[in-house]
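As described in the Methods, two query proteins were run sequentially through the folding procedure within a single session, without resetting any intermediate state between them. The first query and its resulting structure tokens are shown here.
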Amino acid sequence: MKTKPISIFLCLVWGASFCAHAQQKSPASGFVDDAATLTGSRSLKLVSMRQAFDAAWQRAVSRGEAEGLESRSKSERDVATNLLAGPPSLELSSRTDRWHDATGNRENEIGVALPTWLPGQRSARIASAQVGARLSDAAMASSRLRLAGEVRETAWAISAQHAELEVAEDQAAYLKQLSADVLRRVDAGDLARSDWLAAEAESLGASAAALDARTRLQLAISRWKLLTGLDALPDATENAPMGVGKADQHPEAALALFAQDRAKRQVDLAATSKWDAPELALKFREDIPATGIPAQRSVGISIRIPLGASERGTTQLAEAQANRTVAELHFSREQDRLREEALTAKLAVEIAQRGLTAERARASHLTERASLIEKSFKLGESPLTDLLRAKSAATQAISGRAKQEAAAGLASARLRQANGELP
């Protein structure tokens, strides 16, 4: 949704001289010029939302978290595909009677213990690792979407603050010129000094409001730079969203679904891992009965099988079952939440569009009224107070229209966000 240039409507209020100036400066160039004045640079350009999002993603903390989850998932896959349930261990033993009978009896033994998988444990771990890989991808997509929401919100905040600044500065310029005109008429004896005091007070108030609007715009630009690292400012317009997306295709829904699946796989894994892993040991033994007697060598095989479930395994199973219950509830609630968010966002777009239509009509009526009262004031048929009130009402209407245009654009962006669409 594209925001109409505010300067077109301001032409109705401030006459042909303002129109000539507005025709020389497009909204985009005016945005850049104002921001350049704020930041001390004249080389600023507008960037698309996609460019801004890509720049923000390179700086995002969530990007590092998502990449860390992906690395963890890869490590789990490597462990699951290993032939052993754990790292092998080396066993060394030696025995001698040197400190007792000293007959030369010696026994030396070396062995390797190999942890083995329990029945069904390796397949359960592989299944869990595969789901974990999809979960890490979903977490990456979810993190990107959340960041896109931050970029959109910040971009439209700048757009709204810039619209307010344009209105405030044009109002201040008009009232300054009006105050000068009233002063000349006071000197000519056409108006009382009280009229000039009223006009000058309005001019000073408008100047203060313009400075306040400029400060708020600077704060919004600072937040934008912190988020994206860009000196360029955003072109917040995007294609209009196409209706309401399906909740089950949303990245957040995919993340909840894979989290639920992962929790189920973790229960299966914990159920097959209640016992400690058996160990298969291969040993080589050398016996020397006494000095001068040839050594006797042998090879042995042994297996160690734990009896009964370990306390750690039982605890892990209970924890996995609790996590599965939570994940199932979260998935169900997440689908409902995403569906309601999308419908609410679509309704907000419709309301914002109706509000924008009303604000445009209101601004048009009040600017025309202010123009008529200005002509009447110049002819001496209307007092200055009527003109000031009419101009104030027209300015408020134009400001309201500008805010509503930004609100309509933000509502459209939020609908895209609710649909799970990236810039």
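Immediately afterward, the second query was submitted; its sequence and tokens are:
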Amino acid sequence: MTIHMFLGQIVIGISLAANLFLVASGLTIIFGLLRLINFAHASLYALGAYFCFTVSGWTGNYWMGLAASCFATMILGAAIEIGLLRRIYKSEHILQLLLTFALILAFTDLTKLVWGPFPVTVRLPAALSGVVLLSGNPIPVYCFFLIGLGLAVGLGLYLFMYRTKWGAVIRTAAYDREMTSALGVNVPRLFTAVFILGAGLGGLGGGIAAPLTTIIPDMGMLIIIDSFAVIIIGGVGSLMGAVVGSLIIGIWGAIGLLIVPQFAMVFTFVLMGIILLIRPWGIFGEKF
């Protein structure tokens, strides 16, 4: 592999990391505040892709579909949190795992009923369908769009979490829920708002991935594994950890498939094991 091919794969890896960050950031925000292991995030990702497929097909406009993937999953996330998850926040983690995994099964079957079991695709918008030559390598324009969107979302989340009053309230509630409630904050409503934000990010990730992959009902299972790997590597509840973890997995996924494709996925689990052994709270996580 030449240096030019290597640089091209780095760019592709960063674009993959940007999409992974959208999903993992929503997951880590939810886990950081709600202490909820939300496997149903995989279904929100898949549903985001299907919403994008449906609305872009109706309107002929990919951007409308992308907006729908975010807003529809936010509405669905509110219904899930208020109707189901709110009742198990104080339960053992095993009950949370069982419920959220049951939601995956339910949403997968529901998806098959609504859209059918056969794969569907979303066409790239014309403005993003070309390629850019980088050191002689043709890189899809959509990769640069992914990188730009990932940077914009990351910056927006950082400003929201660390430069606004509500971000400070969320971080305070993550450390001490009782004290936050005593200060007059409606903690259940705050939990709902954070879950809606995380659900919207998961749906947006699905909408962004829709033109890049074949959309199938259980498409969220692979990315949810990678998303949990990002959280383990980067640190639970850490936005910077989500960025770094996504970059590590995304870049390795692009380069590893070229160098040692048979071990590309194994490396992720090996790295997770090493992190759990030497720093179980993650690179940017706080010791527990």
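Residues 111 and 231 are 27 Å apart (CA to CA). We note this only descriptively and draw no conclusion about the first query from it.
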